[in-house]
Every structure is written in C-alpha cells, then in structure tokens.
C-alpha cells in the first residue's frame, strides 16, 4: 500500500479515490468466513462520486480544480449533476443516491465504466522507472480488467473480491491509510493545478464536511433534543453545532443517524475523537429520526452508521482513548 501511495507518477486522483472507497467499505462491512469480501463495482462508484461531490465546488478564485493531468472530465460530469440536483433541493451525493434521481443514476452508470477501465485496471500497478511497471494483484484479481473494456463486460464482472485478509488489514489500518491517502490526494491536486494553492486550506476544502449542506438539520435536531446539547445535556445557546458522532475524519457519513446537535464547547473538544460507544448507541436509538430525514431530505444512513461503528470499535486496540465529555476520556476495552 505504501508503495502504491508513494509512487509519484499518478495521472489522476482516481486511484486514490478508489483506495479510499475500499478502505471505507472494509470498515463498514464484515468479511466472509474465509476473510475475503465481495465488493460491487457499483458501490465503489457511489463512494467515489460521494468523495468528489463536495470537491467539484469552486475553490476560492481558482475555479473548479483539476483532478488529473489532462482536463477535468470526471469532476465536470459530477459537477453538472450536482448543480442540477441542487436546484431540486438535493444537496449531498448520499441524498441523490437514496432518491434514485435519474440524473444521478445515469451518472453512476457512465462513471462505472470509467472506474473499471482506469483505477480498477491500474490500481495495483507500481510504476518503475526502468521497466514501465509491474502489477501485483495483492488486493484483488484484476486480470479481467483492461482499459478498453465495454459496458457489457463490466456488467458481467459486476464485483471485485478482496483477497482473504485484505478487508481485515484495511480495516485495522484505516485511520492511518485515510490520513495518508488524503495527504497524497491534496499534494496531487496541487500538482495538477499548477497554481499557488495553500495546502492547508485545500485539505479542508477537499475533505472537510460541507457545513452548508447540513444547516437544515439545526432546527429539527434542536427540537428533537429539547434544545439540550446531545453530549452534556446543558441548554444550548444560539451557537449550535451539527456534530458527527462517528467523527467525519474517522468515517465520512453525512446521515441523520450519525448527526446530533451539540454546543460549541462539546463539539470543539470532541473534534476528531472517537466517542464512547454509549454516545453512538444513544444516537442510533433516537426515535423520530426518519421524520427528520424526510423533512430535511438528508438521508438517514442508519445501517451504514451502525455497521461503521461496529467496524471501528471492533478494530480498536485496548487502551485507546474514547471521548466521553469535555476533557473526559475513557480507556477502550477490546
Ligand atoms: Zn455540551
């Protein structure tokens, strides 16, 4: 993995997006008894679109950012659908997916082919200066993938199977890999855009949560919690934050099941910490969540949040510090 990430000759960020998709899928899904995991190409495509969805916004005065050396075709296609759906009140990729909006369905169908022809074909090729490159299919068997494959061929293949041990390995190292992939991705975007981009600003832009998309949740979640902070139970002042219970940087899930209203004190102190399990369970057990999801058009994502929590807590070593409240941590027992 390190070799794949460090090879400095990427033509686009699509490989990184694909790796990140595989990491997230492994955190959220249980492997088969033999340790392998079958992953639909469709699912990988949905995840990739969700990563790019906020990234195709206009960045400061730089306009839309390039994600490859030659043009912006994938981001442009996503941006087009994003703008179209925003006028229909659909703001996140997850919401578009859940609504099965025709424009989104078409986008997935067309990008699925690109994903198969490019990142899935080339993901496991490590470039060498002398002999072009060698492929070592250590993640999954890619022998049926090639850059001229057709829609029919992709339909027939349908899935990839991560080799036994790979899902567990990706899950256990997910926090490290995610940080590594994001930093490589940010560096690539700086390179592809040949502009004076501030890497720190850029990282927040590319991988931060899209706050404006979640603003509609402030009032409904406040009501649901009787105006009390989800974590400390104190009455909230006007400064209400929408907090990801399973932190966004740990697993990016913008679903109502993973979102609560918190005061700034708790929200800022918790930051990217993994909370104690009790907080996650309380968030998942709230009633009326479907009603909030329906009125705000932010998807619920209950099952994803719940299985991501199982994946994260299941791979944490004993002694990891979990956030319970402001400056209050508890040691995890595995
Ligand atoms: Zn609080």
What does this structure look like?
The protein has two domains: 206 residues, no CATH class; 120 residues, no CATH class. Helices cover 50% and strands 9% of the residues. It is built from 17 helices and eight strands. The strands form four sheets. It has a two-stranded antiparallel sheet. Helix 2 runs antiparallel to helix 10. The structure holds zinc ion (ZN).
User: How widely separated are the two ends?
Assistant: 26 Å
Class derived from helix and strand content: mainly alpha
Rounded to an integer in angstroms, the radius of gyration calculated over CA atoms is: 20 Å
SS element count, helices? 17
- Give unreliable regions as ranges: none
- The amount of beta strand, in percent, is 5-15%
* Large-scale geometry: globular
What string gives the helices and strands in order? HHEHHHHHEEHEHHHHHEEHHHHEE
In short:
By secondary structure, the protein is mostly helical. The chain is built from 17 helices and 8 strands. The strands form 4 sheets. A two-stranded antiparallel sheet has the order 1-4. Strands 2-3 form a two-stranded antiparallel ribbon.
Features:
334 residues; 2 domains; 17 helices; globular; binds zinc ion
Lay out the secondary structure:
Elements: H1 2-6, H2 14-28, E1 37-40, H3 41-55, H4 73-86, H5 93-99, H6 102-117, H7 119-122, E2 125-126, E3 134-135, H8 151-157, E4 159-162, H9 166-172, H10 174-193, H11 199-207, H12 211-214, H13 218-224, E5 240-244, E6 259-263, H14 264-270, H15 277-285, H16 289-296, H17 302-315, E7 321-325, E8 328-331
Helix pairs in contact: 2-3, 2-9, 2-10, 2-17, 3-4, 3-6, 4-6, 10-11, 15-17
The site of zinc ion has 8 residues, from strand 6 and helix 14.
């Amino acid at each position: 993995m390190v070799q794949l990430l460090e090879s400095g000759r990427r033509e686009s960020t699509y490989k990184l997006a694909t790796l990140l998709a595989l990491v997230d899928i492994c955190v959220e899904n249980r492997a088969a008894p033999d340790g392998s995991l079958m992953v639909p190409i469709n699912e990988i495509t949905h995840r990739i679109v969700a990563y790019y969805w906020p990234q195709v916004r206009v960045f400061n005065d730089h306009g839309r950012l390039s994600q490859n050396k030659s043009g912006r075709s994938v981001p442009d296609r996503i941006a087009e659908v994003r703008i179209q759906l925003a006028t229909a009140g659909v703001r996140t990729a997850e919401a578009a997916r859940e609504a099965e909006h025709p424009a989104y369905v078409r986008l997935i169908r067309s990008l699925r082919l690109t994903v198969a022809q490019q990142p899935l074909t080339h993901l496991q090729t490590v470039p060498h200066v002398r002999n072009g490159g060698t492929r070592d299919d250590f993640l999954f068997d890619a022998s049926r993938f090639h850059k001229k494959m057709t829609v029919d061929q992709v339909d027939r293949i349908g899935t990839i199977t991560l080799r036994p041990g790979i899902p567990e390995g990706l899950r256990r190292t997910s926090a490290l890999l995610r940080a590594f992939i994001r930093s490589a991705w940010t560096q690539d975007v700086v390179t592809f855009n040949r502009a004076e981009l501030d890497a720190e600003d850029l990282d927040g832009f590319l991988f931060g949560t899209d706050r404006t998309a979640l603003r509609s949740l402030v009032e409904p979640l406040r009501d649901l919690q009787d105006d009390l902070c989800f974590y400390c139970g104190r009455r909230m002042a006007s400064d209400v934050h929408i907090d990801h219970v399973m932190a966004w940087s740990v697993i990016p899930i913008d679903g109502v099941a993973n979102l609560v209203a918190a005061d700034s004190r708790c929200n800022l102190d918790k930051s990217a910490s993994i909370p104690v399990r009790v907080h996650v369970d309380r968030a998942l057990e709230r009633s009326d969540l479907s009603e909030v999801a329906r009125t705000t058009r932010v998807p619920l994502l209950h099952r994803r949040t719940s299985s991501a929590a199982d994946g994260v807590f299941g791979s944490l070593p004993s002694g990891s510090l979990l956030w319970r409240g402001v400056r209050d941590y508890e040691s995890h027992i595995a």
